[in-house]
Every structure is written in structure tokens, then in C-alpha cells.
Amino acid sequence: MTEARPRPQGPAGLTVRRLDAAAEPAWEAFVQACPEATFFHRAGWRRVLEQAFGHPGHYLYAESGGRIRGVLPLGHVKTLLFGNALISVPFCVYGGVAAEDAEAEGALIQAARDLAESLQVDYLELRHRQRRLPQWPCKDDLYVTFRKAIDPDPEVNLKAIPRKQRAMVRKGMQRGLISEEEGGIERFFPIYADSVRRLGTPVFPRRYFRALMDTFGDAARVTTVHHQGRPVSSVLSFLFRDEVLPYYGGGTAEARGLAAFDFLYWEVMRRAAGAGCRVFDYGRSKRGTGSFQFKKNWGFEPEPLYYEYHLVRARAIPEINPLNPRYRLFIQGWKRLPTPVANVLGPYLSRGLG
Question: Which residues share a beta bridge with 274?
């Protein structure tokens, strides 16, 4: 399907269309104003998916009277290793439908189902922060997100971190760590690539991170922590409305001993609060993992994520995640790869890990 067929719905003349360049400013304005929309609903993700991974984007919107009433961004991920899926949104923790009323929501979901059937994917996956489709199979026991309000006063935010974790932030300060905001990925990428290799995860291609920086401009920024002149931890964060989302982060082998992770995220929080952000979104973690516990130790409460599925060719909900026993031997082997080898092979595999 190369173009969403207009679908009139009801007396309001609601129509579902596919995003083109002419409609992109209206899409962006809707996303900025709609309470249900997130940074991952932004139109720029379509270009990132296509440029960095070659995955087609099917960005659907519902309109009536020339006004957008809902959006549903979809990416088509098809690889030999990980199957064939239509996802809202690949490589993003949130997605799904964002609409101002039930009529627009229903029209978009039906259009997505029709598209999934037309493409004959294994499944359609909608990533919601709330349960939206109780009749659909749902994965709600694996991923959580961590979000918390932050204060303009840095001392208020520091005191809100539980005592033991606050001590780690202060340890980083005492070790002489300093942070710097950067406009590129030159320091970030080597740290991130080695960090995910040590976790047993294939790295995303360098062009993906360049595309993120190029596409989102000032809404994407890198914060890097240095110790005695050497970069030891780094994170790529996104800004959306009054929220900051530290999204891709990593550290060197010495980072943990230096408390460089705690100091890094504290610096992101401190800088963001000073710039007017009022929500710190710590992002997605899998239950029972180290990152899950790390974020809880910061005083954040986990909120379940609801990944809802319309099965087309698949017979069951997919289990493409590191906790699946099927991938454990692969993960252990990947950890032992030399970093240069992992950086060459990783991008070929990671394009299917949407």
C-alpha cells in the first residue's frame, strides 16, 4: 500500500490520509498540542526510519474540514531474523494513536488494521502508555516507563533523590567529574557502542544517531561527562514540550566506579530544569533488570507500558527481547566480540530490533 485510501467516516466527513510534505507542518502542530502525543509521534521519525534503516513509514492522520483530529505513525520493519511487523513506532518506547476524540481514534486504528492486512505482516503493534484496546492481545508485564516532575530549583531536585543514590551523585562531584553539552555524536558514539557491546546488544549504526541529530536539531542534544579530561559517560536526550527524555546512554568500563552514570543523569536533570523542563522521563526498562532497579533507586515509580497487538500472520505475541531464553547464547557470545567487530556487524542486526 503506497497511499492511504481516504476513508469517510460518519456525518463529520472524517477522512484518513497518509502524511506528505505539505501536511507535515499541520501534523507537527497537532502533536505539539495533543496531550496524548509524545516526542515519538513527531513527523521527523519517518525520515529517520527511512534514512537510517530503510524501513518504510506509513504515517496516517485523520482529518475533517481541513483540520487534523488524530495521528498514527507506523513503521514497517521487515528482516529475515526478526520477522515482518508494522509498529507504532519502531525504535521508540511510545507510539500508537494520538487523537482528540474517539471517532478519529477508531478510524485510525481501523486504517492501521487494514494496512497490516494489506501488507500481510506478522502483526501490528501499537505502543501505548495506557490500555487502549482491551480486546487485543497485550504485553503489559515486560516494559515499564519512569516519569517524574522536576522543580526549577536544583537543590529541590537533588534532595528528592533518595539518600543512597544522592550520595552517588555527590561522589561523582567529589571525583571532579564535569559535564559538557555537545552538538554532535563524536564523543557519544564510541562510548555508547562499547557500552551496548558489553551488555550483549548489537549497536545501531552511526548514521542513525547522525540522522536523529540532524532531524530534530535543538530538540536532540548530547551530554558527556569527563574525568581528568577523558569522556567516561554520555547520553543523547530529546526535548519535547516541557519534558526531557535521556534516551540513549552509555559509559566506559570505569564509569561505574566513578559514579559517572549517576552524575551524568543528574547533570541532564539539572540542565533541563534550568532550561524550563518540568518532567524528567527516564525512559523504558524491562522489569527485573539493572536499569529498572537503577531508576527505582532514583525515587521514580514504574508505570506499565501497554504494547497491544493485532495478529495477522503470527499466532502469538512476539518475544523479541533479551529476556527470551532463545537469545541468551547469542547475548553471551556478543559480549565477547572485540568492539571493532561488533561495530561492523551490529548495524546489520540492529535494524530489525525495532
Answer: none
Burial class of residue 19, CB neighbours in 10 A (0-12, 13-18, 19+): buried
The one-letter code for the residue type at 136 is: W
Q: Domains of the chain, with CATH numbers? A: 15-128 (3.40.630.30), 144-304 (3.40.630.30)
CB 283 within 8 A of CB 147: no
Q: Which amino acid is at 271?
A: R
Please state at what angle helix 188-198 crosses helix 339-350, rounded to 10 degrees: 90
- Residues near 30 by beta carbon (within 8 Å), at least 6 away in sequence: 37, 61, 68, 71
Concatenated DSSP letters for 38-98? -GGGSTHHHHHIIIII---EEEEEEEETTEEEEEEEEEEEEETTTEEEEEESTT-S--S-E
Q: What is the pLDDT of residues 203-255, one digit of tens each?
A: 899 999 999 999 999 899 999 999 999 999 999 999 999 999 999 999 999 99
242 contacts 151 by C-beta, under 8 angstroms: no
- C-alpha cell at position 57: 513509514
Cell of 141: 508485564
pTM as predicted: 0.91
* Residue in this structure with the C-alpha cell 547464547, named with its chain if needed: 329
